[in-house]
Specification:
Among the domains are: 177-244, no CATH class; 248-379, Lipocalin (Beta Barrel). The chain is flat and about 65 Å long. Helix content is 9%, strand content 36%. It is mainly beta. A hairpin with a 4-residue loop joins β32 (400-404) and β33. The longest helix is centred in the first third of the chain and has 21 residues, at 51-71. The strands form 13 sheets. Strands 1, 2, 3, 4 and 5 form a five-stranded antiparallel β-sheet that branches. A four-stranded antiparallel β-sheet has the order 17-18-19-20, with no helix packed on it.
Length: 498
């Protein structure tokens, strides 16, 4: 029945309800971590996924349940492609116990057969690009491939941008890129010394320029900035020069969606302080000045006042009176009312929230703008981000409602006195009420369950939400969208059965 439900998924069908169905069917099996079910199942929140991913999930979840049962694991990770064919996964006993967790590498064909590697690890990273970092009782860590073979020497520690090893907690920081070694922080001003060495994905060390600026050490999308013969260069994952920039810049940042931002100091006679001109750099080394993209310098860090990504093709920066947006084509959205300080949120569904504080009074405004910089909605007390075509709005008088992508107001079915507006996840909104209770509603405005007492109520992810009833984090439980408790004998504190 589980497989039949997934087979019904079309190429662009959202799977959150299917995941809920799956969760319900194995609710009497506490040995598989519900957190794993909710997070490791390769479904991006509120996104349509490709059919190939549907096919993977079709085989993934039932097999992970079978592995957990037969090998007595209380945690089984998602399946990772193995370089030798098939898949590998992490299985754990005592998952969640920071002192006693044991991790094992499982090899599987992805359908039915699986085998546990007898080697026991105390900490492991995610598996990316066919490699993972592991540690054992000696506290040393090293790299293995998907056959479980040790391919690097042992290290007692790395000091910066290292793979984060977890003992009962999943790492999300290891990106499957070479790792910088031996970075030692110096004075309180943040200065550092770098050995110039990396661990490559083959487990071997290679060298880069140890005198390159500290900000350039981290790989992104297979490239890292360095210097050679006085020129700024991009190194690939083998430490080879991929391209040389036509001119050196004062600041270089990581690649994101195939483009890196760079900045060069620019001086104006009308300004007492220099500013920075933004450049866009492609992965083939082409560098273009972005018209109108001027950015102030943070006096504390000497870095650009600019965010990597503000959503839907825009970057967010500070220049002069307040924040503004620019894109790689040179389109800029500036605040025009110079009387105030502006703070821009990220774009979503074509809109962004702008918070405006008057410099001469305590007054503030909170409103939406479109991609032309025009006001799209009136001043309110609080907006959530648009997600899946909807946002939650709280007016100054406490009234709360939903807003769709056409800016049409959708009232909640039951009048609710809302204290805090939360983000929409998986088509569900968590609402903290003025009486201290919590409840959930969907994007039609329907209240899904009666309000209830708790310390913290989590957002729904793949049909499941975590409820924390007390400040001491005792008795955490999970609910479905009807408010029904799932996994009654699942204990977050130990990761297994009570």
């Amino acid at each position: 029945m589980v497989t039949k439900n997934i087979l019904k998924a079309s190429k662009c069908q959202k799977l959150s309800q299917i995941v809920l169905d799956l969760a319900s069917k194995i609710a009497n099996f506490p040995a598989l971590s519900v957190q794993t079910l909710a997070s490791a199942i390769t479904i991006k929140r509120d996104c349509e996924i490709l059919f190939s991913e549907v096919e993977k999930i079709k085989n993934d979840l039932p097999l992970r349940v079978e592995i957990a049962k037969k090998l007595k694991f209380n945690y089984v990770s998602e399946l990772y492609p193995a370089s030798q064919g098939g898949y590998v996964a992490w299985g754990a006993r005592n998952y969640g116990d920071t002192e006693n967790a044991e991790f094992y590498l499982i090899e599987t064909d992805g359908v039915s057969d699986f085998e546990e590697n007898s080697k026991k690890y105390q900490g492991v990273s995610e598996i990316k690009n066919g490699v993972a970092f592991v540690s054992d009782k000696s506290e040393a860590f090293y790299m293995i491939n998907t056959s479980g073979e040790k391919i690097s020497k042992e290290y007692s520690e790395v000091t910066y941008h290292s793979p984060i090893l977890f003992r009962g907690k999943v790492s999300t920081l290891f990106e499957g890129e070479p790792i910088a070694l031996d970075i030692v922080h110096g004075a309180s001003d943040g200065s550092a010394k770098f050995s110039g060495k990396y661990i490559g994905l083959d487990g071997q060390e290679f060298s880069a320029n140890p005198d390159a600026p500290f900000a350039l050490y981290k790989y992104s999308e297979g490239l890292v900035w360095s210097e050679k013969d006085g020129k700024q260069v991009a190194l690939n994952r083998k430490g080879e020069v991929e391209f040389t920039l036509p001119e050196n810049l004062d600041h270089l940042y990581r690649f994101d969606k195939g483009v890196a931002l760079g900045f060069k100091n620019k001086f104006y006679a009308t300004r007492s302080q220099p500013c920075l001109q933004a450049f866009a750099i492609s992965k083939n080394g082409e560098m273009k000045e972005i018209p109108g993209a001027l950015v102030d310098i943070d006096s504390r860090s000497d870095s650009p006042k600019c965010d990597w990504w503000a959503g839907e093709g825009f970057y967010r920066a500070t220049f002069g009176e307040g924040e503004y947006y620019f894109n790689l084509a040179g389109k800029t959205i500036y605040p025009r009312e110079q009387r105030s300080n502006y703070h821009f949120e990220f774009f979503s569904n074509g809109y962004a929230t702008v918070l405006v504080r008057d410099k001469n009074s305590s007054k503030s405004e909170n409103f939406l703008i479109d991609k032309e910089g025009k006001r799209a909605f009136h001043n309110v007390y609080q907006f959530s981000h648009f997600r899946d075509g909807f946002a939650v709005v709280r007016e100054h008088d406490g009234r709360c409602y939903l807003l769709d992508k056409d800016l049409k107001q959708i009232p909640f079915e039951t009048e609710l006195s809302v204290k805090t507006v939360r983000e929409i996840w998986s088509g569900v909104i968590c609402l903290e009420l003025t009486n201290g209770k919590h409840t959930y509603a969907d994007i039609t405005g329907k209240q899904l369950m009666p309000s209830f007492d708790c310390y913290l109520a989590g957002s729904f992810d793949c049909g499941i939400a975590e409820i924390n009833p007390s400040r001491e984090h005792n008795g955490v439980y999970f609910i479905d969208k009807t408010g029904r408790r799932l996994f009654e004998d699942f204990s977050v504190s130990t990761g297994g059965q009570k």
